[in-house]
Amino acid sequence: MNRLAQSALLFLLGATLLHAGTTDLYLRYVKSGLRPLVLLAGVVLLATAAATLWYDRRGAPGHEHHEPRISWLLALPVLALILVAPPALGSYSASHTGTALTKPFGFPDLPAGDAPLRLGVADYAGRAVYDDGRSLHDRELKITGFVTLDRAGAPYLVRMGLNCCAADAQPVKIALTGDVPPVLAPDTWLEITGRYTPRRTKDPVNDGPIPYVEVTRARPVPTPHDPYDETWNT
């Protein structure tokens, strides 16, 4: 692998990172707040590629080294980024990982009114478990997440949260009761309308607390722009 090949590889990787950062592709790998760092890394790699090529064109003196051919394996991550866009983590990961719900520092006031209140899975779960649903009583709620089933077939509504990247994603789960569709396929995204119920259960994986929501309506929805939920760990 000579300097020309090195600069080509660096250019390709930098261009791939810029492409990922200027589209939604980066959301499959890292949380949305890291977009500036993805773009910066792409710019740095492109600048490094240009500097490497310029240095080689100048014919700078020095000893020529013959790197082992195994160094071409460095091209594999680049090809993976270009050719394979992994799906967001879904029901399989959620069913094999215990709920990551933790007690928040506090609960911001919710907007008043009679309109349905839209909440995230983690927000509802936190208020239901650690605030006994005080702010949720007598409110119609809308919550969106994907479906996962436990070994007994019980349905949960789930969002995966990120600390940094998809490698550390963890689920927060809500158990469903009430007017639940009789047939639910794992990984189906649902918008459920319902109300708070004090009923709770324990996650069969780690015995973590899982609140229920009383479902009155449920409808399938497309996968959201950002399938991960970062609000639970902020």
From TrEMBL:
Transmembrane segment boundaries: 36-55, 70-89
Q: Does the keyword Membrane apply?
A: yes
Q: Name one Pfam family in it.
A: DUF1980_C
Give all residue intervals belonging to the DUF1980 domain: 129-228
The protein's UniProt keywords, in alphabetical order, are:
Membrane, Transmembrane, Transmembrane helix
This chain belongs to the protein called TIGR03943 family protein
**From which organism does this entry originate?**
Streptomyces venetus
